[in-house]
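Give me structure tokens for this 346-residue protein.
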Amino acid sequence: MNEHRFFLTAIFLVVLVSLLKLYQPFLMIIAIASLLAMATYTINFKLYKLTKNRHIAAILSTSLLSLLLFGPLIYSLTSIGSIANNFDFAMIEKVQHYLKTLDYQLPTPFAFMQSSLDEFINTLNIAQMSSTALSYLGSLGKNSAGFLKDMLLIVVFFFFALLNGKDLIDYIKSVMPLGAQEVNMVFAEVTSVMSVVLYSILFSAIFQGMLFSFIGMYFGYDGLLLGIFYGFASLIPVIGGALMWIPLCALEIAHGNTTSAIIIALYSIVIISIIADTFVKPLIIKYINDKMVKTPTMVNELLIFFAIFAGLTTFGFWGMILGPAITTLFISLLKLYKLLKEKSYM
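Here you go.
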């Protein structure tokens, strides 16, 4: 019997290594799709109760995810292409000339920075920076095909994860040397955190992007495009939305609209950064944790923030999903180890 078990284990390990080698290019995509399926489990379950059909519920959930992923991206790419074709390069020289002839004095507390700032502006070459930016946009266009391919695969795997995820989880429970209660504890913890992370990211990005789109439309810009860009920029910790409102203020100053630039800056700092991000965002997270998640998560919000930041730094865009998942799984395993250890002493 032991020989048979040893042989079966050896064969299984060989096949497992071969399988990982075979699907290595898709492991990240499969992991992200699976985590997204876990995060949207409650929505898919509600759709299943409504439609009484597992396939229809999975199709509806996948369609919603596709709309959230592809809609903003396609609109942004088409709008950027139109802007690039109609870009006025004379404006670059105008901005540079305006900055170099601008007569300004920093406030007394910051007077020590005056000489350094003057030197920076005098040596500033906006034309070269714009040329570099346009080259980056060109490379972005080349790489966007690969990004779209990854998103398409994520959507496909997401659909099958929703459709067959429960069967797979039940099978894992049956073969793991752990009780169903322990497995459910880990699964519930990871699912709850992923739901909070996903919903809070989406709602916060949409809310802040919507606020910025209002000020953009007020001053005659494409509000939808600015809102999409600001929503993505808000995902970057610390600097976030400044990547959007500072260039917009610089553009207004270049047109001689100093008052408009001040209004945009104040609106972005006070309304979006302070009120929306500092005060409203925690309320959104609390509401999601209390009302939209089946099992409220006990993981500290600050830890989730650092997990998102670490994920973005290590894995790039999709790191905002992987970072919290890896961190939560580690914490859940520690809790499980403690629980099993306490049971062994009982």
